[in-house]
Structure formats: C-alpha cells, structure tokens
C-alpha cells in the first residue's frame, strides 16, 4: 500500500512538472528515447583503443611467450652439435634457464626444475622431441602473426571511423568544426544550418557528426538573454551546456565551447545495461544501436503541412512540427534534427552513421580473426605443455643423483 501511494505521488509530480514545462514553453523530456540511442552509440565509440586493450587481456599469456618457453626448453636440452640457429637464441634466454635450476611461472606458484645434462640418453631423446614441437610451434606462430597484423589493420580502420563519427574529423577532435555549415566547416553558422530539413543538399548538413546531432536534439537556440534551459534529453542542463549561442550571447551561433560542453551533455547518459562490458565495441552492438536509431527515425507525431519531412525526422516529438528544428525559444517542438536533404536525392547521407556501419564491417572481420587467434593460442598452450611434459619426463631417474623431483620442489 505504501509503495502504491509513493508511485501515485511520483506520477502526480511528474505530470505536474510536465504541465508546467508546457506552460513555460520549454522542452520537457520528449527526446529521452532518441537521446538514449545516441548515448549507446557514444558509449561504444568514445574510447577507440578499448578493443585493443581487451584483446591483449584475452591473449595473456601471449603466444609469443609460449613459443619462447618451448624454444628455451629446446636449447637447454640440446647439445651444441644438434643446434644451429636455435643455439643462437641462447643469448636471449633469461639466466635462470641456464643456471642450476629453471623456474617456470605457473599461476601464483613457481616450479623449480634442475638443469639437465644434454649428454644423457634420455635428455637427448627429449631434446629431439622438443625440437620437433618447437618447429611446429614456429609454424603456428607465423600463422598467428599474420592474423594479428590483419586485426591491427582492421581495428585501426574502425578506430578512425569512430573518430569521424564522433567529431566529423579523422583525429576525433571535438570543436566548432564538428558542426555542419552551409558555408563550410567552422564558418559562422546557425543552428538551423546544422539541424534543419532544408540543410545539407549536396554539402554537409545534419548527420555530419554525433556531436552535431546531439546538440540539435538537446539544445535550444537561446542566447544569454534567454531564461530558457533544456530538459529535452531527460536531464536538466544549464543553458551554457546546450545553447546554440556564442560566448558573448549572440543567438543562433555555433555552441561556444563544444569540446567541454559535449562531455557534460553525455555525462547525463544513463548507464548502459544488457551486455557484458556494455561499452566494448562489437559489430553486433554497433548494428543494434543503428537499428534502434532507424526504429525511431520518422516516428515523431508529425502533423505539419509537409508530411514528406516526417520520415527523416528525429526528436521534437511533442505535437506537430515542420522539420525546421531551429530550437527557438518557447518552441519545444523544434528541438530536433531532420535529415531530409542529406538523405534524399543527392545528399551525402548521415555521415556519422555511414562511418559506424563501415566500422561494424571491419570489426566483424576482426572478431572472426580474433576467434582464430584464440584457437591458435590454445594450440600453442598444448604444445608448450607437451614440451614441459617431455622435459619433466627426462628428469626421472636423472634427478635422483642431483636434485629432488620437480613436483616436490615448489615455492609460493
């Protein structure tokens, strides 16, 4: 009963605030669904190097270190006459491998193994087997390196596309050049040039960057003389955060400091849920986010006299609108972005979306190769275990004269 009462109070307060927002002529949470889509996309592209770090975590211990273990075992069990190039690798081996005992890190413990005499028959037999394993491991690692190079290339391409999608710039730098302008990037422009149905054509327009479209969706055109602030994206943001006005208060200018205000806006994003590592980019997540964007595009209650603009409209969902998306004070129906000109005819399309689609294709191939790389790592782990097993077997009997059996000599 108490819970039901609290819910009624919450709903009543929400309704009162909504009515008050309409009376004051201010945007009131209408763009929350669209903002959440942009938040999801931003979360996936904001850290271009995240995937490389994840892959490095997945590949620990590295295949290179596993090959190194096998090479070391081949060197220390073999006679000089049995080694050519392998013997040269001895210079690169840690001193522990040629001292009186060999230390192998195994989880949190280190196994200590006695050194071996390569002249003993069982050691010579073990050396021959380990060298065969080493040659197999070298073939496997060559295949791994080829795939790794391709993954680096593909992920590098995806990172570049992420930066383009975010800021409209291959370097990922957020600035006033992130906004579309009929006069070209960086020119003195109005909000309508970056957000309206009649902007774009064969030049840049709405969709130039995610930064551009977030400001279209969340910010009014009010200057410093206006008392309006925006909660169109679900969180009350100060006028300074989202206004399309110059630092001196001139209305309908480019946002003054997008490099600082854009992170402030995106700091209002809800936490992403439903995925393991929700912000780790993948082809599936990117395509799901773009599908969510498509699902909301054109779904506004568009009752204006120009229904041809409806299919390209995003946001500004309260009542009718004309697609101008000029964000004028007191007109909450026009805090939006309309992609008519950039999507229809010879328009350049939604640039940030095209960049993400390209990145998704590159990540899809990178993910396929990453699975194969993990399989290769498993092969090397099995080969390394085989080499260690052969080495330990060669110690049986031999170690009774000089040192305890390796399994009896462990240190934390």
TrEMBL record:
It is found in: Cell membrane. Keywords: Cell membrane, Glycoprotein, GPI-anchor, Lipoprotein, Membrane, Signal. Residues 77-381 form the Trypanosome variant surface glycoprotein B-type N-terminal domain. Pfam families: VSG_B (PF13206). Its main location: membrane. It comes from the Eukaryota. Residues 1-25 form the signal peptide. It is a lipid-anchor; GPI-anchor. Residues 170-202 are annotated as: Disordered. GO terms for cellular component: plasma membrane; side of membrane. InterPro entries: Trypano_VSG_B_N_dom (IPR025932). VSG forms a coat on the surface of the parasite. The trypanosome evades the immune response of the host by expressing a series of antigenically distinct VSGs from an estimated 1000 VSG genes. This is Variant surface glycoprotein.
